[in-house]
Amino acid sequence: MLETFAPCARAPGRPSAATLPPSAAPSRARLLIRAPGLTRAFVLALGLVLAVLALTGCVAPTPTADSHRDAAEQTVVDLLSAVATGILVADAHRRDLALGPYLETTAGDAEEAARSIADTFGVLQPPTPEADLLRARLTPLCDDAVNALADLRIALNRDDAEGVAEAARLLAHSSDALTLLQGELS
Amino acid sequence: MRWLTGFTLGLLTAVGGFLDIGDLVANSVVGSRFGMTLAWVVPVGLVGLMLFTEMSARVTATTGRGTFDLVRERLGPRVGLANLLASYLITFLTFAAQLGGMALALELASGIHYLLWVPVAAAFVWIVLWRLSFERMEKTYGILGLALVVFGVALWMLGPDWGVLLEDAASFAPPAQEGPAVWWYYAIALFGAAMTPYTVLFFSSGGVEEKWGPRDLATAKVNVFFGLPLGGLLSLCIMACAAVVLMPAGIQVSDLGQVALPVVSVLGKVGLIVVILGFVAATFGASLESGLSAAYAVSQYFGWRWGKALPPEKAPYFHLVIMVSLLAGVLFMLTGLDPITVTEYSLVFSAAALPLTYLPIFVVANDRGYLGDRVNSRFTNILGSLYLVLLCAVSVAAVPLMVYTKAGQ
Amino acid sequence: MSDRDDGAVFRIGFTVLDRQIVDAEGVNVAKVDDVEFTWTSGELPAMTALVGDTAALGPRIAGRLGGFWETVLARLRPPDEEPTRIPVGDVERFVPATVLSTPAPRGMRPLEDWLGRRVLARIPGGRR
To answer: What is its main location (chain B) (predicted)?
Structure first.
């Protein structure tokens, strides 16, 4: 009587003896008996850890004076980076070092970055009166930086040398003010 | 004489094809924020890459089979599947990042918004993968990628204080304004950029496509031992340019345009054209390589027919994977995620998955059944084991550091 | 379990399973996902065929995921279609890859061939 013995017809999950080297089969079988419970527990534990991590990430931390100050410092640093980019771009335009599309794109990226940085700081809730003062100082600086970069982008678009020079002046002024604040914060 | 031109071509291709959007972004960001203090990561990553690429090349030249082909055979379907899933997801993320990088580079050249370029770039990648022969494809983007040598030229012309740069590089500590956690985070990202997993996968499958035999092993070794270090040198040039021009100005790189600023400042319009050409070539080449790698990985696991050498109708599933990956990549980038951010994440996740990619290669390269006498030497094994320990350490640290530093802030 | 061929003893786990099956013309056929044994009463079970059916990979992957895999792929297969199997007699050698002495049997991968014929060949450059 011919029986076609297909190992895969066995209960799924149990490796058939045919697929294992003989020496490995007994210990494998023993481990498998314990494995389902172990694996489940492990997966649950891992899931719990990940959930905790995710939740602590999602919930906004209670603003403290320190964290607000840190956020302000970071904002200043990031704004300085965007403003400095604008200054270099304006300089490159003045010295005719680059082509229009490149300058416009780079200036546009700096402006977008500055806007995003300013917004991120703007939505923070100041926890103390000192933080209020800090916010009152920083917010106009943010606006100045964003506007100067916007002016730069517009002037570059129109290939307006005077406009670019004016924007560069505004950016330099903005940079000085931000550097001053940075010195006070650190 | 023909041998010499072939050899030079291979070398140049290796250099030109080395850099991708990950290297461009990582080296530039690191240079602008940390100066040259993380320069040591590049040689460390490079040595690891050379080690495992050589192993992979030896396996391919001796057995005529690709890496993934052998992973499932040697380590079983379960480990092979885990390896495949991790490799595919990370290669896909890298692939999407390269497409995004290509779109950004085209935006710099044209002023047209990068999202409009994403489908165009993808279409171009697909056409090349569909029609162009393997060798021609490699040589084209390899040679064009050499345009990035402009960073070396720019660095030379900037005339920096080499003493200060070297001092920085040897200091092994973050600069005053940055903390150790961020420093190590970027070290890991830079390491991930140097040891990109898809490179080895592509290299070994490419060897099968080009039908390497033991004779080609010597050429492959030269490409690995001379080409890759030269590529690494270019990485350091990018880092140094950023350190010299951007760091003193307080610019922290967050966009591709800023990466080119040092070149523009000293080489003007000519430099700009060359550097954008280099960006496009590097990201284009990397798109091709990572797209193919993803398809190689899947096809070799399942035993399908694969390869650019076959007409597409003879390797349907292989090309289907390419098309699906391209479509998914385009859709992913069209969600508007910043390509630079996607790149940085792809680097960190690559770093996290490095042991999974490289351990199987190490195992196969030690197997006498496949390689006979050409198994790893004792030196290779010692170095390889050390690197595997390092890779595990990097892998364990990568994601927690990312969470702790909020992705590098 | 072991098999005898010219007195050589080999283990299926290493020599046969997960190897790439290549036909006489060097074209990839499939991976050996499972192995078929035939047990005639009065004799020892003998290996009769290599199964290159991706669904058969399921149970070898992991318990629940594997079973799910197998069920889904089995349901996707048309009812009167046989799982891909290659008679062991066609095998010329097992290592380093499983090489067949014949060209690949027709109709082994109907969906893939259909895709190649009907879809990819229609796109310009598909037949090159």
So the answer is: membrane
Measure CB to CB from residue B312 to each of C54, C57, C120 and give the nearest one. Answer: C120
Paired tokens of B252: 């922290």
Judge whether C60 is closer than 8 Å to chain B, CB to CB: yes
Q: Is B304 on the interface with C (CB under 8 A)?
A: yes
Pairing of strands C34-40, A2-5: antiparallel
- Those residues whose C-beta lies under 8 Å from the C-beta of residue A156, and which sit 6 or more positions away, are A89, A93, A100, A103, A104, A107, A164
| Tokens found for residue A132 | 């209020």
Q: ipTM, 2 decimals? A: 0.87
Note whether residue A148 is domain-resident: yes
pLDDT tens, position by position, B31-60 = 999 999 999 999 999 999 999 988 988 888
The structural domains of chain C, ordered by start, are 2-103 (2.30.30.240)
**Tens of pLDDT, residues A135-181:** 899 999 999 999 999 999 999 999 889 999 999 999 999 999 999 99
Domain endpoint, select from A32, A58, A84: A58
Query: Hey, are the CB atoms on B311 and C62 less than 8 Å from each other?
Result: no
CB contact residues (below 8 A), chain B span 51-80, against chain C: 63, 65, 69, 72-73, 76-78, 80
Cα A47 to chain centroid, rounded? 25
Q: Which two tokens stand for residue B267?
A: 């080489």
